[in-house]
Protein 1
Amino acid sequence: MRTTVGIIGGGPAGLLLARLLHRAGIDCVVLESRTREYVEQRQRAGMLEQGTVEALRSCDAAARLDAEGLVHQGIELRFAEERHHLDFPALTGGRTVTIYAQTEIVKDLVALQLAEGPPLLFEAEALAVEKAQSDAPVVRFLHEGREQTLTCDWIAGCDGFHGVAREAFPTATSRTYEHDYPYSWLGILADVPPSCEELIYARGERGFALHSMRSPAVSRLYLQVPNGTDPDDWSDELIWDELSARFAIDADWTLARGPITAKSVTPMRSYVHEPMRHGRLLLAGDAAHIVPPTGAKGLNLAVSDVSVLALALTDLHRTGSTQLLDRYSELCLSRVWQATRFSYDMTRMLHAQPNGDAFESRMQLARLRRITASRHAAAELAANYTGLPLPV
């Protein structure tokens, strides 16, 4: 097989890149190791920055998003049994965020790809990237029981943290930066309408809790738990009791309960790989960086990466210039590190420290008081949360 851009990974990053390239008249092939059913049911993020929504609209992939997405005007911070609302449009000049599950984005992009886009191969497992520094890099992959090759002009590694794309980077020129957090999230999906119209970030001595949603009928909630927690050790009643305790405020407010349909535990970590380009191989999304979910940046960073990459490849296609491609890693990493910093700060500010450090606890409260008392501090959080502009 031969194509201009070989895309490894059929998640939102790879599918959106394929859609953007297709709209620009650039041929590509997407290789996805899993089945269509698996990628369309894989539970991931659900909070979209305004720039992510605009990127999906720009390639006519937002019809259902615009019809079903829940536009949010802000978030609520809870601490010391108080509630504080941050008004994003007032703080950012009109910017908002939208709740629309990643599973639905994937369904929308898969449908478009199969209906009118370039080839999308499911159960096509990438085995290795070869000749990345040549003019014709190759992806070796397994599909329909036999090994095949895809020869490309460029390869986009959108295959996640455990994919093969990053393995093709020479050890001598690769740098990795990582931080593991001493706690995890127990996440649940519940068939119950959300108890609040917006996300609630609750900080307390019992630990952090997050109230979110996937739709007007489905709630998504999280609890800070110790690393290594088995979700089966938490009964439904215990989960609801603990969530209620952590969201408690000095006001008339009740957390609605309902049937829990899914439970999972997510470890918290930060990871950045530099550079994001090696020859004609370019990384995007989780293949290059991981952030803790507190700042809701993972999916949005992936969209930012492929938006820059699509602009660079389109510029090459139309003008013959490699100027943007030559700066791809530099441009993306500038935004990646700001999102990593924001996610780190949000995580450290809102989670109880396992060692019970009293000084750190007071510092967390001081940071929260600063945000709720200072328009400048609140505006900085809102600007980061709703999404920094693309670096191009």
Protein 2
Amino acid sequence: MIPLIALSGRVTGDADKEHAGVHLHYALAVRRAGGVPIILPPSIGADRAAEALGPCGGLILTGGEDVEPRLYGEEPHPRLGRLAPERDAFEVALFRVARERGLPILAICRGFQLVNVVLGGTLWQHLPETGSNVLDHDRGQRWAERTHRVRVRPDTRTAAALGTVELLTNSFHHQGIKALAPELVGSAEAEDGVLEAAETPPGAPWFVGVQWHPESFWEEEAGADLGLFTALVSESRNGQVRPAAPAPGRF
């Protein structure tokens, strides 16, 4: 059976020409990994998250806008980017439903940050102001251009999916993980110490969050990044869905 994989969508464009969707690379990565991508835009509404996820065997929370800082108890930073309150609410609901059902979840960039906040963690609102040795994590280059090295902890779900403990990644984020949520375990970091990946511990439903954009490398024949999608699809195909305790958090 080919599993359906839900992709959280976003709204773009002007008010009278809005579009809902995802960057095509997400869908192509899921397809190549053996799944069928299903895009869920935030206009579905948080109250319909359970119905939207009904036929799906896994969830990918995609990248995009900054997470509302008031969700983790902070006032907005002057360099805060575009916010998307409706999307925040919808993706929080998607995550909670997927977690309660024991669905495997892959969270990418913003998605990783949002999950960290839901589970009680916090974010750096603007990484360049956190210290003099911080790399430029938002260089605005081509999506498939690798710009900095990431070290992955051995014996983690992240390492198992990637098939390596070191790789070069792309980077398109000015926010990052400050305090990691208590339920997550860090599994990779950049050369400057910025957390690049985290996951749930053994025995918990499968979750991996990464700060870079692995979907951009979906075409690479021998690339490690597609392994994250392959692992998600494999977990979805296994169908070992089990109930989990509701996630603690601020909302």
